[in-house]
Amino acid sequence: MSNTDRDYTVSRIDGLPAGVFGESYVVCAAYSLPNEAFRGEWYILTQRPKEALHHGTIEVSSKGVPSELGVVDIDFARAAALAQARLDLLDLLEKRSLEVKREDLAYLPFDLKQIASPLLGCWMRGRFNVQLTKVKDLTSATDLSTYLRLMQQVQYTRRPG
Fold first, then answer.
1. Among 81, 77, 86, 83, residue whose Cα is nearest residue 31
2. DSSP states along 25-53
3. What pTM value is reported for the model?
């Protein structure tokens, strides 16, 4: 199965100094709901100041949307989730800049670069294990849930701390 066939994408947060969030990823997923509706999910995994998960969902409906406005489908829901993840990252960046007493960090540009999933590698290194388990428990996206369930069967070495 290629990345484009999955119901989720993984992006790396690029452009920020490593001390802001450390190793960080955004996972976005989307799937169909009844009655011409779709749900998008986003999960933000950040390493600093401690490993954390920030997440949310958005529901969109294609019912009654004129064709002149475009297509409301799974891709639209995934894009909406990614847009919301960007907004959440702006909020997280502002909070983090206050924590480290560097308000200038709140205005740094960043990019979300879609990449092949690094989640198995994170799991094997003991990075984000608690957070990835939580994502598995929260998601209703079939491919993402399956991937995370299979990933949990892989042995990993726990890191101290």
1. 77
2. EEEEEEEEETTTEEEEEEEEEE-SSS-EE
3. 0.91
Residue positions counted in the chain: 161
* Nearest-angstrom CA–CA distance, 40 and 20: 26
| Contact between residue 28 and residue 9 where contact means Cβ atoms under 8 Å apart | yes
Considering all CA atoms of the chain, what is the largest pairwise distance in Å, rounded to the nearest integer?
Answer: 55
User: Over the stretch 59-69, which tens digit does the pLDDT of each residue have?
Assistant: 999 999 999 99
As a whole number of angstroms, the distance between CA 146 and CA 135 comes to 11
Which region holds residue 4: left if phi is over 0, alpha if psi is between -120 and 50, else beta? alpha
Task: List pLDDT tens digits, range 23-75.
Answer: 999 999 999 999 999 999 999 999 999 999 999 999 999 999 999 999 999 99
CA distance 51 to 48: 6
Per the CB < 8 A criterion, the answer to whether 136 and 152 are in contact is yes
